[in-house]
Here is the input.
Amino acid sequence: MISFTINGESKSTNVDPETPLLWVIRDHIGLQGTKFGCGMALCGACTVHMNGDPIRSCSVPVSAVSGQKITTIEGLAKNGLTEVQKAWLEHGVPQCGYCQSGQIMSATALLAKNPNPTDDDIDTAMSGNICRCGTYPRIRAAIHTAAKNMKHP
Amino acid sequence: MLDQNISRRNFLRGAATTTAGLAIGIDLVTNKAFAAEPAAMTLPNPWLRIDSDSITFVLDKTEMGQGINTALAMIVAEELDVDLEQLTIENAIADRIYTTHSDLGAQMTGGSSSVRNAWQPLKIIAATARQMLTHAAAKEWSVDPAECRTASGMIYHDKTGKKGSYGAFADAAGKLPVPAPKFKDPATYRYVGKATKRVDGNAKVTGQAKYGIDTVIPGMLSATIVRCPVFGGSVKSLDDKQAKASPGVKHIINTGASVAVLADTYWQARQAAKLLTITWDEGDLAGLSSDKIRQAFIELAKNDGKVTREDGDVKNHEKLAAKTIDAVYETPYLAHATMEPQNCVARVTSDSCEVWAPTQTPGVCMEVARAITGLAPEKIKIHTTGIGGGFGRRLVADYVAEAVTLASEVNVPVRVLWSREEDMRHDFYRPISYNVMSGGIDQSGNPLFWKHRVVGPAILAQFLPHAIGAMMPPWMPPSISKMMGKFTGFTFHGLKVDDTSTEGAKDIPYKIPNILVDYHYADPGVPVGFWRSVGHSHQAFMVESFIDELAHLAGRDPYAYRRELLAGHPRNLGVLDRVAKEINWTSPAPKGVFRGIAQHACFGSFCAEAVEVSVSESGEIKIHRVVAAIDCGPIVNPDGVRAQLEGAIVFGLSAALKGEITIENGQVKQSNFHDYAVLRINEAPKIEVHIIESTQPVTGVGEPGLPPIAPALANAIFAATGKRLRKLPLSLVVRNP
Here is the structure.
């Protein structure tokens, strides 16, 4: 039995310990905001937080998160929307939206560590997240806006 | 085009009433195959349904990121006079009534056609509904309807102070005759033409938006399909003992050309699939390679092809040119690599079939389900889910056929979910092309002749009946494929000759007295399909690079040269001039920065792009800035137009700088994003989009932003280095062949 916390709730599972966290989150816990994109930690669509750090849940066996705190897109906002999500809306970032849960998780983790990121900081933190719709310019702008609004809400 | 001449009789039929409320439709007379007969009106409420507590807009186009849900809802909200938030947007199921796609005659989303096709019908539907509601209120209040006004879903008669909601008059309105629509004065528009936030933004930033992959049907099994890695191969022998014993596995189905593992969960199916021992009969394409394809194309290019454009007399002017230039341009196969891998859920019983598909083409899904199940259309329900990127990949319903076939086999709902590797290796790729070009200028530098020979496969030749393999997974039994051929022919009735192979090449707008474009159909057998902007996506690279070559041959400025040759093409000129102005073309670029420019028209829209690049000593290309201008007629949502241009440019840059599918031993060599790289945020330039004000007919914007970017970039690289890159992906570093 593997136990961990997800979005503040304790969960236990007896699936094959090698099962990637992604499939436990999606198919067993039923939280579908986290997406499957590549299965090889190459695209970032499956990004969640483990103790606040972004991880690619498609390539992390569920055994590795035993006792850890996992946050998914569904658990990001305590109520309403976070500043990152608000900035995403303000800049009209999403197109198909499939990668955006992962983008927002990566951006949120970046801003938690670096409240004032430069374009280079954004490039470094976000280059693991692919968007085929091409929303990158808006993602960059939205991160700057979120950074500003988090300081002066 | 749609026949906009909608008869009163047909409209009445469309405005059929349900037991309660007002339901408005429209009879879209498209072409002979799909002229809506009374029986074709199977849905009483195809587009707009108003009842006491809701106003539902049924979206018959697939929202795949392009923002069509928002744009079309804006049109409805505008003429119906409701707030956008008051509309409930529902995805249409597959039905012949939605055969609104003008180019292909099927219920599908593609060809930058949605706003172009829906603009007028949706205006008519919404404006008529508003009038009928107003008349119903006026009748009840015994007042003159002309004295009533509407706002935000309410009807007011100011003189008497009476007011009521649309919902309150929906029943009564449904019993009224259908008036001729009276449209709003565009000067009073609240939404159309104003930058408007997406209707699905909130769902997409909170993880609540549902895609195909999120479909859960109680009791469904998850299927992983192991396909022959060589296109067209089949199973020679199978040992599935170990896989069968793997946890969660319920069925293993050998379809002849692939093996499907069905388990309780995706991960179980995936793990079990690894335990299969399959030997393959690799079929006719074993041994096929990119190099062999290229050699065959080179041979073909030595002979004349089928002429697709001929102006003047190239042959007799070749020798008269003062200067000539010969060039070979090449573009590779490209995968779509949608973020959401292909997937589909199907439930099939003896007398019903229900499909949940992330598809651009519910109409084709219907035909696929009919062919496989043998059920009548009214027994089949096709649900279009949210989709994680389309780009043309989801115009093919191969993955739908897989799910329906497997669900028919096992009598429980089945979800087929592809891995990224399967997605990359079993795509319907952008066609490869090999192009031999020659051009000449006269003494004063003006073009004298232009010759362009295209060699490559044709999309429709595979997509249409004769090579139904493009529609169906390769393992489909021939009898079904044959049947599908018939259905597909029906579905795509009205389609004209395939011009996707030389589109963009044969419609070159420049004033050149002697032009010859010819084409060799050459299909190595690798599946090909529609890829954002289709033929234009690569042909613009050749044409806009080669016109640049002629400008330099003439010693002229590439912008000025284009300008002169575009006299009489005001919309091409309009976008070209705009980007030149916005990028300060006539002023020097910053030190170390170089510019390129290109323009291209497609799908009725006009686009130009200019690029600023720098190139490092080691040949690394850095794009600093892209400026784009688009003329697509009057705009519904300017922010949506900008987003589409940004997206098309990023998608086009991935193709220009990175994308390449290569074939080795009949199979695709690339498998995931490590060897099929796409643009990432650190490589994305600043993008500025300028929208030309236009009173021309409304056209589309999903694709036209893509074609100019590769040539604009190649032209900028030439300006920076003097090196003319004639092969995609563009690279200054010598690559292994």
The domain at 2-75 of chain A is CATH 3.10.20.30 (Ubiquitin-like (UB roll)). Helices of chain A lie at 21-29, 83-90, 100-113, 119-126, 136-151. The CA atoms of residues 55 and 101 of chain A lie 13 Å apart. Chain A has a mean pLDDT of 97.
